[in-house]
Design brief:
Layout lengths: L3 E4 L2 E4 L4 E7 L8 E7 L6 E7 L4 E3 L7 E6 L4 E6 L8 E11 L2 E6 L3 E6 L1
Parallel strand pairs: 2-11
Antiparallel strand pairs: 1-3, 3-8, 4-5, 4-9, 5-6, 7-8, 9-10, 9-11
Length: 119
């Protein structure tokens, strides 16, 4: 079991920045991948950024060059630095963890944090 707690969402003007945090209940280096997803009203949930236990990073096309995912192993926390925010970035952002145990894939989600970007 992995519990995930997100924080850092809020209201920001277009062009501004926010940093989201995802605190995990266990060592993040033991988690196969931790990622950020978002879901806007009426849209499907999409992957924003993901970091693997080996440090590999993936980004969604719409955030490439603007968002950066990082982690602090000592704090078991993954961050999403969001710069040059646009109104279309408005969504609920969810932290996700994928953990393989005995070859069984388990997936965990946080409760989500709202990000609203005003124009």
């Amino acid at each position: 079991q992995v519990q995930l707690v997100e924080s850092g969402g809020g209201l920001v003007q277009a062009g501004g920045s926010l940093r989201l945090s995802c605190a995990a209940s266990k060592s993040i280096v033991s988690i196969n991948a931790v990622g950020w997803y978002r879901q806007a009203p009426g849209k499907q949930r999409e992957m924003v950024a993901r970091i693997t236990s080996g440090g590999g990073r993936n980004y969604g096309d719409s955030v490439l060059g603007r968002f950066t995912i990082s982690r602090d192993n000592a704090k078991n926390t993954v961050y999403l630095q969001m710069n040059s925010l646009k109104p279309e970035d408005t969504a609920v952002y969810y932290c996700n963890a994928v953990l393989f145990t005995w070859s069984v894939r388990n997936e965990y989600w946080g409760q989500g944090t709202q990000v609203t970007v005003s124009s």
